[in-house]
Amino acid sequence: RLMLQHVTTHFPDLPCSLEIEKPRFNIEALFKFPTTFMFSQHYANAHGFDDAISLLKSLPANTTATCTWGQQGAWAISNNGEIMHNPAYQPLQVIDTLGAGDTFNAGLIHSLLNKHTLQQALNNACQLAGHKCGQQGFAKLLSNFIFQ
Predict the structure, then answer these.
(1) How does 21-50 read in b/e, with b if 16+ C-beta sit within 10 Å?
(2) Which of 32, 37, 77, 102 has the fewest CB atoms within 10 Å, i.e. the most exposed one?
(3) Rounded distance, CA 12 to CA 132, Å?
(4) Which residues, 6 or more positions from 29, have their beta carbon under 8 angstroms from its beta carbon?
């Protein structure tokens, strides 16, 4: 909480994101700080949501957020309330899924910081996470990947 508070107080124009992967006690108290949220299916299910769209629509107005949903891909809501979806990208062979969620988040943040639209960022994040699942570990993950 203190880090998020410091960033938003001292650098109010700096974009700030928060991953909400697992349900944790009072994590919702952090929701007033970030500009972008990255939710997981695990968090959504733990809070009674059966799909990503229901979770995203429950958020306050002017919220930018994503929610990953495994093999179904990921959904996002823009700060103007537009819901978008991007399918998961399946590699030819699934080799290693460890870190795919973090890879998704990194791709999303990278794209947003480079001024891609939310739909482009969602697409890049899904593609990068799928690319990650097709290889062991992270070495050379970006060597054959081009952000759109």
Answers:
(1) beeeeeeeebeebbbbbbbbbebbeeeebe
(2) 32
(3) 33
(4) 1
* Cβ proximity of 82 and 63 under 8 Å: no
Residue ranges of domains in the chain: 2-133
Q: Is the dihedral of CA 93, 99, 105, 107 positive or negative?
A: negative
For the chain, give the mean pLDDT. 94
- What is the SS3 assignment for 62? coil
Cβ neighbours, 10 Å, residue 134: 16
* Angle at which helices 100-113 and 118-133 cross, to 10°: 150
According to CATH, the superfamily of the domain at 2-133 is Ribokinase (3.40.1190.20)
Burial of 65 from C-beta contacts in 10 A (0-12 / 13-18 / 19+): buried
pLDDT band for position 136 (50/70/90)?
A: very high
**In this prediction, what percent of the chain has a pLDDT beyond 70?**
99
pLDDT of residue 146: 76
What DSSP designation does 31 have?
Answer: G
**What does pTM read for this prediction?**
0.92
3-state secondary structure of 39: strand
